[in-house]
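Narrative summary of target 7.
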Amino acid sequence: QVQLVESGGGLVQAGGSLRLSCAASGRTFGSAAMGWFRQAPGKERDFVATIIWSAGTTYYADSVKGRFTISRDNAKNTVYLQMDSLKPEDTAVYFCAVDTVATSVRALRSAGAYDFWGQGTQVTVSS
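Modeled conformation, tokenized:
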């Protein structure tokens, strides 16, 4: 089992920034990747970004590329999502997730590739 706890969400004006954190505990060794997804009311859970834990390679959804940055701290078993130039359409509940198996890069853009999920943190961007 892996436990994930997100933090850092909140209310921000358009153009502002937020930094989300996701701390992992439990059987975290061997985790292949950690990702961020988001879900707006009435919509599906969408891929935001993912990072390959060992290599640090990152992948982003087109909608956030150039504005969001995913990073990790191996020593703290924590992944971050720095969100800049926020837009009202970024409003959603943001979830972090861990993939404990070496899934293909293509599959990592799908929620089904991830084995454990956090409880989510609300991000609201006002216009």
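The chain has a mean pLDDT of 94.
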